[in-house]
Amino acid sequence: MESFYRQHPANDLDLVDQIAQHLRQYPYEIRHARKLMRRFHALASDVAQALHRVAVPFTLSINLKDTGDQVLLHFLRYPGDVIDMRRVMHELHASESDVQRALAKLETYIVDGGEVVIDENSNKK
After folding, report:
1. Does the pTM of the predicted model rise above 0.85?
2. Which of 52, 94, 107, 114 has the most CB atoms in a 10 Å sphere around its CB?
């Protein structure tokens, strides 16, 4: 299946740049990772690289006790898992609203660019 999507290996960097540029213009489309993969004939790793290029410089406030933020951190570590949302929800005991909050933060992360900041106050009682 991988050979189907990788028709032009020499153009992989161009492909990742194209996806990154597309995500800058239409950040909400991160919610449709499979559609992006089909549109650009890309692998999940290509989409993940594009996300990394677009999202690196933004500051996120992360509360480690918040399930939505745990989902967000999972997606940042494993962007390809956006495709298998139900499994991630089951593993993290996340609700649909937790996932929606995570995706909204991820969208902001892509649009604004920045770095991850873990909220240290969330660990204190």
Report:
1. no
2. 94
Rounded CA gap, 109 and 28, in Å?
Answer: 11
Task: Give the pLDDT of residue 94.
Answer: 93
Within 10 angstroms of residue 94's Cβ, the number of other Cβ atoms is 20
User: Sign of dihedral through CA atoms 81, 82, 84, 87?
Assistant: positive
* pLDDT given for residue 106 in this prediction: 78
List the chain residues with pLDDT less than 70: 1-13, 55-60, 110-125
> pLDDT, tens digit, for every residue of 81-95?
888 888 989 999 999
Residue 4 has a pLDDT of 47
Reduce the DSSP state of residue 14 to 3 states and report it. Answer: helix
Helical H runs in the chain? 2-5, 12-25, 33-40, 44-55, 67-77, 85-92, 96-112
Residue 10 one-letter amino acid: A
User: 23 in helix, strand or coil?
Assistant: helix
27, 110 Cβ separation under 8 angstroms:
yes
Taking the C-alpha atoms of residue 85 and residue 99, their distance in angstroms, rounded to an integer, is: 8
